[in-house]
Design a protein that fits this description.
By secondary structure, the chain is mainly alpha-helical. It has a single domain, classed as Recoverin, domain 1. Helices cover 65% and strands 6% of the residues. This is Kv channel-interacting protein 4 isoform X15.
């Protein structure tokens, strides 16, 4: 059976669409191709890599949500372009870009609003990811109270949903909300996706320096 290999767009275009230099993109692409010879990452491989970096907990569900956010064309795989565009936002994007990315993660069904069920699913997945490192012990009541507090701050028109505008306004006006919903989220995401093409030790040093 012939293996279909994916060829990314030119580096010049990626330089325009990301905050990485041409040299950085070349280094990342070489590592990406070494770990993913076909030029794409499927969800199962993504989950396996995630599990390596978060062995203390159950990472599968959270990895699924992150994968879906990176997979911008919803074709079931992450191309090199999708990977570096997402990584660029997480590592070097403006606050607004990071807020928009975080919103898209919480908006699981892509209907333009965040429901309590969606936020509960993401926060539950985050606590599952942390596993035994999560202190104090977290149960369903803790998660429900967490989500209720967030909605009290962010659901400005009290319709039971958080729109993009409400999300952005609440985050701009409350540093605690940003720390709770965005900074912790993006800080945990930057390290792991950056290592997808760098799972070998000598390559990991390159990515930590970017």
């Amino acid at each position: 059976m012939q293996v279909v290999r994916y060829k990314p767009e030119g580096l010049d275009a990626l330089c325009r669409n990301t905050k990485f230099s041409r040299k950085e993109l070349q280094i990342m692409y070489r590592g990406f191709k070494q770990e993913c010879p076909t030029g794409i990452v499927n969800e199962e491989t993504f989950k396996e890599i995630y599990a390596q970096f978060f062995p203390q907990g159950e990472s599968s569900q959270y990895a699924h949500y992150v994968f879906s956010t990176f997979d911008r064309d919803n074709n079931g795989s992450i191309s090199f372009e999708e990977f570096v565009v997402g990584l660029s936002v997480l590592s070097r994007g403006s606050l607004q870009e990071k807020l928009q990315w975080a919103f898209s993660l919480y908006d699981i069904n892509n209907d333009g609003v965040i429901s309590k069920d969606e936020m509960t699913s993401i926060i539950t997945a985050i606590y599952d990811l942390m596993g035994r490192c999560s202190e104090p012990f977290v149960d369903e009541n803790t998660i429900r109270d967490h989500v209720d507090r967030v909605f009290q701050k962010m659901d400005l028109n009290k319709d039971g949903f958080i729109s993009m505008d409400e999300f952005m306004e609440a985050c701009r006006g409350d540093k605690d909300v940003v720390d709770d919903l965005v900074k912790k989220l993006t800080s945990s995401l930057i390290a792991m996706p950056a290592k997808i093409p760098a799972t070998l030790p000598h390559k990991m040093r390159v990515y930590r320096s970017l």
